[in-house]
UniProtKB/TrEMBL annotation:
Gene3D superfamilies xrefs: Endonuclease/exonuclease/phosphatase
Name listed for the protein in its UniProt record: Endonuclease/exonuclease/phosphatase domain-containing protein
SUPFAM superfamilies: DNase I-like
One Pfam family linked to the record: Exo_endo_phos_2
Every Endonuclease/exonuclease/phosphatase domain range: 101-210
Recorded GO MF terms: catalytic activity
Naturally occurring in which organism (per UniProt): Araneus ventricosus
């Protein structure tokens, strides 16, 4: 399945882009800085949209979109949503999977201290997508801050993995690039998750990040088994009655073949 996270810097005049890739083929949308008020909410035929709007001042706003065939609910949080930190957490049930998407925007830099207990509290896989506005050498910056140092310390001691740490996602009007939009997931699923950065910003100053999660399908696997007790007993009889090497080799091969069978294992999530 595919996720796209994007700081759209205002979505009202950019909704046309949602009809083309990577937005059109992504099951999940995670958008920051929508600039939406409640009256700006819109209908999408393929998605159920969850909103967090900034009502008292301009800017900000989050949207998390999930397929119509999925079910989801907003997870209540104790955060005081303000202009400095917005968090929208949605629990999702889709194709037999249960996981959580956390969407966040922190224009002054994300403060992990207020959120680490919340992030660490889940027993199901978690994706954390957002515009963290943090700079750190771990993702290619030549500078850091107390907030980014605290965040990296938490990340390195947590059960989460940073997925994108190289390609920049943001460019100022002067062209100076940086990586502000981070994609994070639970370490337990990171082996099946990959991501890349779009080469277009779709009229924003942030490029979308596309994340894929390849969950192993429920498949049947076959395993070859040998009855070693019967094989050893019958082979011993051959060895005591036959001296011709060619005949001996043939008869031993026949014993192994006759005592070998293939069984089908029950459907499950098997490693490749």
């Amino acid at each position: 399945m595919t996720f796209v996270q994007w700081n759209c810097r205002g979505l009202k005049n950019k909704k046309i882009w949602l009809k083309i890739p990577p937005f059109s083929f992504s099951e999940f949308w995670i958008f920051q800085e929508t600039f939406f008020k409640h009256e700006d909410h819109f209908f999408c035929s393929s998605k159920t949209l969850f909103y967090l709007d900034r009502q008292d001042q301009p800017g900000g706003g989050l949207i998390t979109g999930i397929p119509k065939t999925a079910s989801g609910r907003i997870i209540p949080t104790i955060f005081s949503h303000n202009a400095n930190q917005e968090i929208l957490a949605v629990e999702i049930f889709y194709k037999g999977l249960n996981f959580i998407i956390i969407n966040l925007y922190a224009p002054q830099g994300f403060n992990i201290e207020s959120a680490k207990q919340f992030f660490d509290s889940f027993s199901v896989p978690v994706f954390i997508f957002g515009d963290f506005n943090l700079h750190h050498p771990l993702w290619g910056s030549d500078k850091s801050s107390p907030l980014s140092n605290d965040f990296v310390e938490w990340l390195q001691n947590s059960s989460f993995v940073l997925l994108n740490s190289s390609n920049t996602t943001y460019a100022t009007h002067t062209g100076s690039p940086s990586l502000l939009n981070l994609s994070i997931c639970s370490a337990s699923i990171s082996h099946g998750v990959d991501c890349y950065v779009s080469d277009s910003n779709f009229e924003s100053d942030h490029c979308p990040v596309i994340i894929t999660w390849s969950k192993l399908e429920h498949i049947s696997k076959k395993m070859k088994t040998i009855d070693w007790n019967r094989t050893m007993s019958q082979s011993a009889n051959v060895l005591t009655t036959e001296t011709n090497l060619n005949v001996l080799t043939r008869k031993i091969s026949e014993v192994i073949r006759d005592n070998t069978k293939i069984i089908t294992l029950p459907a499950n999530n098997y490693l490749p």
